[in-house]
Design a protein that fits this description.
alpha+beta
Length: 157
């Protein structure tokens, strides 16, 4: 199943490669949280519908609720997809960039295995990878102390 998901992610990111927008534009907004090199290697795509790998195996694994969930953004490796109505929402960009850092640290297979396992065992809302992303985006919105997110994740995960 993981090979199938990895292939789907690669195809999806390739399909949208011409529409990717560099996150380097957020350098001043996210200074101290994300380095310019991290941001220049991270991308987002504004889409009308969030792409998801809706495979029968994922539903059989108990992930139907996640696949059917209405979401505003999702991250696949170094690229995240967001809806037009949230394209200007810095908090959402910040949140998805936490996921980019998680993908970078864990690798594609490592992230997928961990994320799926977490959602299966404790649900989306309590999945540790999501809780970390939500905690960081809240910290950012509240004007919290600057923390190098990728470095923090490398040391704490």
């Amino acid at each position: 199943m993981f090979n199938k998901i990895e292939n789907w992610i690669e195809l999806t990111n390739n399909e949208f490669s011409s529409k990717r927008i560099s996150c380097a534009q957020f350098e001043s907004d996210f200074s101290g949280f994300y380095s310019s090199s991290f941001l220049s290697q991270s991308y987002y795509v504004v889409v009308d519908s969030i792409p998801k790998p809706d495979f029968p195996e994922l539903r059989q694994a108990g992930l139907g609720g996640f696949l059917d969930m209405e979401i505003q953004g999702i991250t696949y490796n170094n690229t995240y997809y967001i809806l037009p109505e949230v394209a200007q929402n810095l908090r959402l960009h910040f949140h998805e960039l936490v996921h980019v850092a998680q993908w970078n640290h864990l690798g594609i297979r490592g992230f997928l295995q961990r994320y799926i396992s977490e959602v299966q065992s404790v649900g989306y809302d309590n999945a540790p990878l999501e809780r970390v992303a939500y905690a960081f985006d809240e910290h950012f919105v509240k004007g919290g102390q600057k923390i190098d997110v990728p470095s923090y994740l490398e040391n704490k995960m």
